[in-house]
Amino acid sequence: MNRLRGLAALGAMLALLAGPAAAGGSDARAAAVLQDWYGLVLQLVRHTPTYSPPVASRSFAYLGVGAYEALASGRPGMASLAGQLNGLAMVPERSAGVDYDEAVILQAVMAEGVRDFFGNTGPMGQRAMGVATERFAAAAAADVPEAVVARSQAYGTALAAHILDWSEADGALPIVNMGFPLEYALGTEPGSWVPTSLVQQQQVPLLPAWGNVRPFAMAHGGACPLPPPPAYSEEEGSEFHREALEVYDTVRNLTDEQRAIARFWSDDPMLSPTPPGHWIAIALQIFDRDQPDVAFRADTLARLGLAMADSFIGCWHAKYEFDLLRPITYIRAHIDPDWEPVLITPPFPEYPSGHSTLSGAAATVLTAAFGEDFSFIDATHERDGLPGRRFGSFHEAAEEAALSRLYGGIHFRAAIDRGLEQGHCIGDHAVSLTMAQTP
Length: 439
Fold this sequence. Notes:
By secondary structure, this protein is mainly α.
């Protein structure tokens, strides 16, 4: 049923793309290009088989940098990220003394980037990208002289090629077998992760080398280290056993509200825009509501994408350092053999919680952008039948997202609390970048 809803959503996107193109001033056209492309990307993430959360976060980072540089190349108040991000060399410059159009440049950058990152999506996604490229290009170029359009498109294409060349050297590719290695030796220590799924592909963990991918704003995957989790123990009364009992008792006594929270933040691949897409969706909803200028949007989306991509690199670096088993494995072996979690346990080690690290990083960036105690309604999943939720701040939302994994029965308390701390550290790296000066 969820899969059918996803296909219906993509069909609705196609219908929208076929509608009339809106015109306006340069800033308005550029903001529309940014918003429209990101809206489509959220749908493409749902329908591209290799798009696990770490992979999705990587694409959001590169697309965000490309969009930001498209504007920064012509605005003195926006500093380039070249030299600030690992491996990003000086980007191509615009020619002096001639006119460019920001919306057209931005359109070219996004079209090239999305086509590259989602080249393996299915037929409906391919069709959506084709329609989007045509319609968004027409809207971006409305009332712009042909010579300026041609010059701007050429520059945007060159800028996109620079970003894509940079991306190819980060160590993330190729992603084969949907990210599950063809050979992998499982840990043999007590408490080591073991498979929790009967699916043959998932008898090895997802993307075990992702912690070695080149990060963006932080120096390396271990830049925000964590203390070890509680020492593994099967003794009743030990700290580890107490944490397992907390998961067990919480799931057995869930309130309706807690169950709803677990479902709201589940964000399963192929059934949602994934957890990083959820936070992108939150930003887009706020943009729709508050209509900030395009420089602020590009700055925020770039920082958010960078922080989320680094959060998965940092989180995965720790996950495979500690290689901890999941609650379902421990509880069934030592507490209750018939116990069932609410959510399906993801196929990779437990500590720390990816939702926690991601959400802590995202909340840190969005709080820096919009301020403390910034209230909003998150309606990301309304199309999937889940009502929106109101939050008084981004950190409140992050804490709920993190706790949702306890309610779902897939994380211990230490992974949740320390994951949030790790996320705050990683988010600070993105916040510290010198970027746009325009609020």
